[in-house]
Amino acid sequence: MIISKPQRKTIFSLTIFTIVCGFGSLYFLRQILSDAEGTWRYIMLGILVLTTSILLSKLLFGYKVIKISHDLVHIYFPFRFFKSTQEIKNLGAWQETKVTTNKTEFRQLKLVFLNKGYVKLSNQENSNYDKVYKYVKRKAPKKEVKD
Q1: For residue 49, what pLDDT band results from cuts at 50, 70 and 90?
Q2: What is the DSSP string of 61-125?
Q3: The pTM is what?
Q4: Taking the alpha carbons of 83, 59, 62, 13 in that order, is the dihedral positive or negative?
Q5: How far is it, in rounded angstroms, from Cα 15 to Cα 71?
Q6: Pairing state between β 82-87 and 105-113
Q7: What's the first-to-final CA gap in the chain, in angstroms?
């Protein structure tokens, strides 16, 4: 059984950055309520609230656990209350995208199922990325989409 979920360091760093942005927005809200002068405070508050809400939605709604065993792909989004079980033969297509930066390589695997559902995994955010890639490459080699 292969279990792929977000790495702890990714969740930790996003959580810390979300908390910092949230406290920054509370600070600027307090500054605006005490002294309403200065348009830059409103702009900073808007930017921080927007950043906090985007990061919070990424943390909560982007969290997914993928379990692969016995030709079944179990996809579970705990904060969306959504579970899906797909057979590997229902995989319509899959593609791995590679982007090389200065010293690291970012890889993303997209699995598209026949019922119009899809899931994306990346090597920097998800654990066991290589195992999932090797499994899909072995079980469905003809469904790979080339660039």
Answers
A1: very high
A2: HS--EEEEETTEEEEEETTTTEEEEEEGGGEEEEEEEEEE-SS-EEEEEEEEETTS-EEEEETTT
A3: 0.82
A4: negative
A5: 34
A6: unpaired
A7: 30
